[in-house]
Amino acid sequence: MPLENWNPLRELESMKREMDRIWDDVFASPRRAEAPWRRPTEKGGVASPAIDIIDRKNEIIIKAEMPGVARENIDISMQEGTLTLKGEIKEDAEKDNGEHSYSERTYRYYARAINIPVKIASDNIKATLKDGILSIHLPKAEDLQPRKIKVEIE
């Protein structure tokens, strides 16, 4: 195999050709969804929402990003120490009536299961949705909450 001098300009030309091909694919398609770099979640797949977990004395708070999900399309369940979050952004019914020319907004489904390592008083779980952030308050079971015990010294 003959040795060949490495030429960085040749590499740049190759990259430029590839980028031109990608952009040609994007603009040749009437739907941006055909773009090769689209993530599966943007094509209607399942996204795992980013979360924060805050462990306080009496409760655990989970904050999950669910932008664009309506309150009525969120499902929260707690079973055997696992908190399951589900939510979906539904497609517009207007798309089906034939009046849409172009749309980049897509259906999206969020799902995440979170292992909760402590016993939770599941009857008292509360959740709020504000600005795309789902906040779930999981009160710890009474037997896990700290309490003061007065000890008599004799």
Main sheet specs: 4 strands, mixed
Number of strands: 8
Distance between the termini: 93 Å
Mean pLDDT: 80
Any idea of the CATH class of the largest domain?
Mainly Beta
* Structural Rg: 25 Å
- Derived structural class: alpha+beta
- Elements, N to C (H/E): HEEEEEEEE
Provide a brief overview of the structure.
With 154 residues, the chain is of the alpha+beta class. The chain is 14% helix and 31% strand.
For the structure shown, list the relevant keywords:
alpha+beta; Immunoglobulin-like; 154 residues; four-stranded mixed β-sheet
Describe, in plain words, how this protein is organized in 3D.
14% of the residues lie in helices and 31% in strands. It folds into two domains: 1-38; 41-94 and 104-144, Immunoglobulin-like, CATH 2.60.40. The protein is an alpha+beta fold and 154 residues long. A hairpin with a 3-residue loop joins strand 2 and strand 3. Strands 1-6-5-4 form a four-stranded mixed sheet, with no helix packed on it. The protein has one helix at 8-28, and strands at 46-47, 51-55, 59-65, 74-79, 82-89, 108-115, 126-130, 133-139.
